[in-house]
Every structure is written in structure tokens, then in C-alpha cells.
TrEMBL record:
The keyword Transmembrane helix does not apply. Belongs to the aldehyde dehydrogenase family. Gene3D superfamilies: Aldehyde Dehydrogenase, Chain A, domain 1 (3.40.605.10), Aldehyde Dehydrogenase, Chain A, domain 2 (3.40.309.10). Keywords: NAD, Oxidoreductase. CDD domains: ALDH_F6_MMSDH. It comes from Vibrio variabilis. SUPFAM superfamilies: ALDH-like. The keyword Oxidoreductase applies. This is methylmalonate-semialdehyde dehydrogenase (CoA acylating). Its EC number is 1.2.1.27.
Length: 497
């Protein structure tokens, strides 16, 4: 029998009373693996009410005790790392190696959450006036919520709720309706780690449920990760309802290849960064910008890309898995067709791809275009598939100008052996995460995930110190104590009794 995915409300994994259910499918077969309820308004209201109630107790728990919950959670996540990765593989189709990376990058954020006290230190200035000191207190906000995408079912929820909760808030998570199972497992382990009833709640659904969260007066912050149009909508709607919002959106990440780069490094890194995880990473390299004579390497790139074969999550020879859904596959194939029709040269065409024994999976083979220009839809749109488009320019200045004209600014990289070129690139580029001979420069959680421009709506980014600022409020105290109020000896003795 197909399992129905529970809600997690008020410390209980419970069945929804909803009349509307969504099929969760295995992307390698399109078989239905679970039924997901679209939570009712009453269920969402109950989750928020329970989170509000839990907040009043949780914010009074000592910061070191909140940190200890995160330490135990980190330990449990590590202990269950491999079975979490298997579960995640089954619902996303990701090969096991990618799934393990997904879980691991989330664990690293939990480690940062265990270090919460040092990130919640305020500031003090003594003697701002005679006998007067000023200092700041960093305090939690209340009920925070998170809305997550399908492509990192462990890492992205873990970007959000551990730091928010460690800072003293409570949290309502609405995971992607396409991959809800990993979130439920994350919640089970969080409970085992000693998280009190109500600090984390999970509700399921799609736009309708998100709209209910965005409008609810008791939700203080909204953290969103997903596609561009939805990020923009969430930011505008959330801020209209006076929420603090951080919305991480889609991208078009360029890698610049200088002629003095190491060819083998360029080719192997470009292949992994473009088709790895079927290109379904917000930091995937989807545009290669060849400067000058480096364009000769496109032939080598084509040979290496052609060796990459998709396959099932537990097939050790597979380079990557299927796309998440039939709709996603159809969209990628439509864009490949548009690329051909608009005049790009399709060096490698993955639109007719099969995997033995899995005829119904959402497979797309590695696809490479050269001769691409900026007016083509394969350049302008985030494809979110194993498709790499190549452009050619004459100089580093031209490459930088090209990237800065693109509306997105999530990640970029340069491959070069010139320190001067690398330094100019890191300084002039209008992109928030820059790699130098590193193709996918995702920062570790003591930094923050700092996408720019069309890839991010808001002010404070995910994880690191910026996330702690996002999940807290600063209170500034100005205090004056009078010398003549200091108790004399006998009074002090009395007070101590
Ligand atoms: P998506 O926007 O379709 O869905 C994300 C979440 O929003 C889901 O929980 C979904 O239920 C909800 N949602 C969908 N449509 C909605 C609507 N109209 N109104 C309100 N809520 C809605 O994204 P996806 O396909 O799950 O994820 C892939 C996208 O996420 C890609 O564009 C990728 O680049 C982006 N992404 C960005 C980052 C980043 O850090 N910038 C990280 C990972 C993924």
C-alpha cells in the first residue's frame, strides 16, 4: 500500500484530514511512492498556534541547552547519514554520492547552529555618558517559516530550521511537495535529539498552503528557496504582510575559461559542474565562457561529456540521476529544441536518452551547445538540466561585461593560472559567490550563502552570521546606575538572607 506522508504538528506525526492529495513519484520510474496531503487551513493554523505556544517556553531555555540539542542532532544525523541519503536518493533520483553530499552539507549547518551562543553576542560601550552604559541584546523573533525546493531535500531545510531554532525561535517548515519524505525523517531525528514538542512543525502542500503561511499574522520570518518567479512572488507577498523575507532564486552560473588555464582541470571540472546532479543545482555551471584560444577545448569537453551516463541512484556507474518529473524533462527538451531552432550548434544531444531497465524514468543525456548567443532562450533561461551552453569572447573584460549583463548573480568561476586575471575577476564581477579554479564555490556555513541580484531577494542571506541576524532582533539597552544606591555593608547582609 502506498504510504501517506504525515504532518508534524504539536510534537505528533499525524494524518491529515485533507480531501486533496498529491502523488509523490520516483523520478527513475514515475511510480507513485507516497501520497501527500495538502494541509487544511485548520491544520496550518494549529501548527502555527502550537509553534507560538512553544516559543514562549523555548526562548527561555538557556542558550547552551539549545546548543546541546544541536550537538545531539548533529551526532544523530551523522549516525543516520547513509540511510538518510538512501531515502533522499529514492525520492529525488539522485545518485547515492550526491545524496550523501546533500546530507553532509546540511550537517555542517547544524554544527554551526551548535555554536549559536558566540553568534548571539551583543555589543557594549561603557560610559556613553557619566555612569551610563549601552549594550545590545540579541533576541529571537517568534515563529519563523521555511518553504523549500525539491533539489536539496536535506541541505536546504537544514539551512533554515536548526539556526532559527538554536537562536530561540520556533519553526514551521513547508517542504517541496515533490520530496517530502526526507523532511519527515529529519524531524524524527530532531525529536530524538531532544527538541521539545512544538519547536518544529511540518505542513505540506503547494501554493495554497504557502499563501496561508505568508498571510498569517503570527509568522515573523519567511525563508524561501526555489525558482525565480516564485521567489519574487514570495518576497513581495511576504513583505506586504510585514514579514522579514529572504528568498533565494534561480540562476545562470558562468565559468570563464582563460587560455592560460590547465586544460585537464577545465574539462573535468566543467563536466562535473554542469551535468552533475543532472544539472539540478542552483550553483551548477550552465554557461561556459571561452576566452580567446581556449575555445579549442570545446572538442575535448564534448568527448568527456559524452562519457557521462545517467542511471538509477544505486547504480555505481551512473554519473547522475533522472530529472525530478516528467514536466521538468519536457521543459528541458523543449529548451534544447529551441536552442537548435535558434541557431546554436548542438554538439551533443541528450534529448533522446534511455536507461536500460528503467523505460519510464525522466532521463536526459548530457547536452552541449556551442555558438550560443545571448539572445537565445538556452542562454536566457535557467534550464535546470544536464545542458551546458558555450559562448566565446575575446578578452577577460568582455567575459566580465557579459556576466554582469546577465540578470542573475548566484555563482561564477574563473579558471586561470594568472593571479592578476583572478584578482580582477573577483573584484569586478557582480556575482555573490566566486570560484577561482573552483567550479561550484558554495561557502561553508561559517560564511553565508551570498547570491546577488536576480538570484536573491532580501538583505540577510542563508546560514552563517547573516542568518543569525535574520532570525533575531537587536535590542539596545541604555543603563544608568547610581553610586549612592550601592548598599552599605549591613544592608548587603540582609539582602543575601
Ligand atoms: P519551485 O519554485 O517550483 O518550488 C519551491 C517551493 O515553492 C516549493 O515548496 C513549492 O511548493 C512552492 N511553490 C511553488 N510554486 C509556488 C507558487 N506559485 N506560490 C507559492 N509557493 C510556490 O522550485 P523547485 O522547482 O522546487 O526548485 C528548483 C529551483 O530552485 C531552481 O530554480 C533553483 O535554481 C532554485 N534553487 C535556488 C537555490 C539558491 O540558493 N539560490 C538553491 C536551490 C534551488
Amino acid at each position: 500500500m502506498t504510504q501517506s506522508v504525515p504532518l508534524y504538528i504539536d510534537g505528533k506525526f499525524c494524518q491529515s484530514q485533507s480531501n486533496e492529495w498529491i502523488d509523490v513519484t520516483n523520478p527513475a520510474t514515475n511510480a507513485v511512492i507516497a501520497k501527500l496531503p495538502k494541509a487544511t487551513d485548520a491544520e496550518i493554523a494549529r501548527a502555527i498556534e502550537s509553534a507560538s505556544h512553544a516559543f514562549h517556553q523555548w526562548k527561555e531555555v538557556a542558550v547552551s541547552e539549545r546548543a546541546r540539542v544541536m550537538l545531539r542532532y548533529q551526532h544523530l544525523l551523522k549516525e543516520h547519514h547513509d540511510d538518510l541519503a538512501e531515502l533522499l536518493s529514492q525520492e529525488t533520483g539522485k545518485i547515492l554520492l550526491d545524496a550523501k553530499g546533500d546530507v553532509w552539507r546540511g550537517i555542517e549547518v547544524v554544527e554551526q547552529a551548535a555554536n549559536i551562543a558566540s553568534n548571539m553576542m551583543g555589543e557594549t560601550v561603557e560610559n556613553v555618558a557619566t555612569d551610563i552604559d549601552s549594550y545590545s541584546l540579541i533576541q529571537p523573533l517568534g515563529v519563523c517559516c521555511g518553504i523549500t525546493p525539491f533539489n536539496f531535500p536535506a541541505m536546504i531545510p537544514l539551512w533554515m530550521f536548526p539556526l532559527a531554532i538554536a537562536a530561540g525561535n520556533t519553526f514551521v517548515l513547508k517542504p517541496s511537495e515533490q520530496v517530502p519524505l526526507t523532511s519527515i525523517r529529519l524531524a524524527e531525528l530532531f525529536e530524538q535529539a531532544g527538541a521539545p514538542k512544538g519547536v518544529l512543525q511540518i505542513v505540506h502542500g503547494d501554493k495554497q498552503q504557502v499563501d496561508t503561511l505568508l498571510a498569517h499574522p503570527d509568522i515573523r520570518t519567511v525563508s524561501f528557496v526555489g525558482s525565480v518567479s516564485v521567489a519574487e512572488y514570495i518576497y513581495h507577498t511576504g513583505t506586504l504582510h510585514n514579514k522579514r523575507v529572504q528568498a533565494f532564486a534561480g540562476a545562470k552560473n558562468h565559468m570563464v575559461i582563460m587560455p592560460d588555464a590547465n586544460k585537464n582541470q577545465v574539462v573535468s571540472n566543467l563536466v562535473g559542474a554542469s551535468v552533475g546532479a543532472a544539472g539540478q543545482r542552483c550553483m551548477a555551471i550552465s554557461v561556459a565562457v571561452f576566452v580567446g584560444e581556449s575555445k579549442q577545448w570545446i572538442a575535448d569537453l564534448k568527448d568527456e561529456m559524452a562519457k557521462m551516463k545517467p542511471g538509477a541512484w544505486d547504480d555505481e556507474s551512473a554519473a547522475y540521476g533522472p530529472l525530478i518529473s516528467k514536466t521538468a524533462k519536457e521543459r528541458v527538451i523543449r529548451l534544447i529544441d529551441e536552442g537548435k531552432a535558434q541557431g546554436a550548434l548542438c554538439e551533443l544531444d541528450g534529448s533522446d536518452c534511455t536507461v536500460s531497465g528503467l523505460p519510464n524514468g525522466n532521463w536526459v543525456g548530457p547536452t552541449l551547445f556551442s555558438g550560443v548567443t545571448t539572445d537565445m532562450s538556452i542562454y536566457q533561461q535557467e534550464i535546470f538540466g544536464p545542458v551546458l551552453v558555450c559562448l566565446e569572447v575575446d578578452s577577460l573584460d568582455d567575459a566580465i561585461a557579459l556576466i554582469n549583463r546577465n540578470p542573475y548573480g548566484n555563482g561564477t568561476s574563473i579558471f586561470t593560472s594568472s593571479g592578476g586575471a583572478a584578482r580582477k575577476f573577483q573584484h569586478d564581477i557582480q556575482v555573490g559567490q566566486v570560484g577561482i579554479n573552483v567550479p561550484i564555490p558554495v561557502p561553508l556555513p561559517f560564511f553565508s550563502f551570498t547570491g546577488w541580484r536576480g538570484s536573491f531577494y532580501g538583505d540577510l542571506h542563508a546560514y552563517g552570521k547573516q542568518a543569525v541576524r535574520f532570525f533575531t532582533e537587536t535590542k539596545t539597552v541604555t543603563a544608568r546606575w547610581f553610586d549612592h544606591d550601592i548598599p552599605t555593608g549591613p544592608n548587603l547582609t540582609i539582602q543575601l538572607k
